[in-house]
Design brief:
Elements (H helix, E strand, L loop, with lengths): L7 E2 L15 H9 L5 E5 H12 L21 E5 L9 H5 L7 E5 L5 H9 L3 E4 L1
Parallel strand pairs: 1-2, 2-3, 3-4, 4-5
Amino acid sequence: MAINKVIMHNSVSLDGSFTDFEVNMELHYQIANRYKADANLIGSNTIVTGIEVYGGEIPPESDADFKKPDRGVSLPYWVITDTNGITKGMLHTCRSFEFCKDVIVLVSQKTSGDYINYLRQIKIWTIYK
């Protein structure tokens, strides 16, 4: 019997945030990718805050954002927990990040049907629990 194994990376700070100092996110993910993780677990609040702090204005979604990226198999998926759908309209910025293979969103029974339909429309994988 084969045993499957998934390596996951999760960055944690003592207070749950990167505040009061400048973070080089490109360097952070270059180092994180050295762990050869299959997935990086990221909270939806982290995505929203990261885009506000580092991304500036969110570009509008384009047709290219609705296609799964074709990147190296060695890159990790970004697994984003988002039961409340607060990343709606932002996930294309994650998907386009060069250190991310693609995005998977964890949802639950509380997640609105509107958000689930949106994720299907932009072809984001979901895991429902």
